[in-house]
Structures are given as C-alpha cells and as structure tokens.
Fold this protein.
Amino acid sequence: MAASLVEVNGVSKAFRIPSVQRQTVREHVFGVLQPRRFDRLAVLDDVSFELRRGEALGIMGRNGCGKSTLLKIVCGVYPADRGTVVTRAPITPILELGVGWNPELDAVDNVFLIGSVMGLTLGEIRASVDEILAFAELEKFANLKLKHYSSGMSSRLAYSVAFKAVREILVLDEIFAVGDAGFKARCEERYRQLRAAGRTVLIVSHDPRTIASFCDRAVLLDGGRIVATGEADKVAERYVSVLTQGNRATTPQAHASA
C-alpha cells in the first residue's frame, strides 16, 4: 500500500455566528450596550481519512456540508477544534483564487509575487512567466495592472501560476470551474500531466462527473461527517442517488464503504 502523505484524524470544526445581525450604524452604536450573543455552527464532526502518495482523492457533498472548510484545515488556513492533520509533503493549494494579488501591479509582477509565495524560485519564475501568461491567454495584458482585470482574467492567471508551482500535493477547490471551454480543456490536460508525473491530488467538488473522472477514491460528506468512502465512481453514483431521491446521505446504507 502507498504511503500516506496526509492523515486527517478525528477533525471537528465549529464557528461562532452572531445570533443577532447588526447591519446599520444605529444598531452597532446601541448594540455596544448589550452583550452580543453567538450561536455555535458545527461544520465538521469527527472527520478522518488519508491521502496516499500518487493518488487523487475527491471530497464531495452538498453545498455547505463542510468541504471547503476541510480543505482549509488540511492546508493550515483554519485550525481544527479537535483532531489532528499530519502532512508529509509540501502542499500547493488552489482555494480562494486571486488572494494575495496586488491590484496596483501588472500581471508579470504579480506572477513573481504569487509564484514566490507558492515556492517557486526567481529563476523558475523567469523561465516560466511567458508560459504562465500563455496558458492563461493573457499575453496581451501582461503589462496591465490587475485592478483593471476582470474576475475571470484574474482567476485564469491564478490557476496558471498555481499549476506551474505544484510540488508534491495539489489541493483544488472546485476544479475546472473557471474560464471558457478552451481554458478548462488546458486545465484538464495540465492536471493529467501532473497525475502522470506522480503528483498527489486532493479535490473538492459537488460535481459527481468531476469526481468520477478525475479521482481514484472519494469520500462523501453530509452534515459535516463522512458517510461514504470508496472508489470514486461508486461514491459519485451514491451522491447522485441521494440527490435524486431527495434523501440525506446519512441513511444506514450510506455509512458502509462504497
């Protein structure tokens, strides 16, 4: 059996949500005189899984089931309330695209900025900047400040840098959700190249076709808990059946491995 590069053991996470929203200046001013009350929103509950070297593992489930929060805990963005995460290799995350861009700098300068943050050396960036811009189809806009970019242009640039910066583990939130058909096709091809080179991938998506096509194994989250795990296509089929029937995935049958 391949060695585990990521081990998630009993991870739980909850957030404190204000029970009363303060939206106006008046509400904020007078609200100071009253203690603010919070509700506890449990997002993840005792989640455990492993990511093996060289495999692609999918995490799927309905919107709001805790998928993105789980990724952020794996990547060290959020701390877990309980449980542990052990990583044994560098992680390249593609989570919130465009975070860290400087809107006053042009595309080339931002490639150097974000590329260095993602672990590329200056030499690697210099050698790759033309390729990165070409992948994103932004050669004509290389010297345009990012504050003038559309959200789609910024997202394509973020994907291009991240795909070039991949080290050992690639973490993707809603892969291939950006750009037109041509850009998505290039992303898919780059993904296949990384997989052929032996890279390990963790993918979050609510699209069963993505999970079935690009993953070896998958886990299904529902209500913050893992309710099914197994071969990616079978877990994807279970998720589709749950959505079709309008039932929650936490039926007794769903707890067994797919």
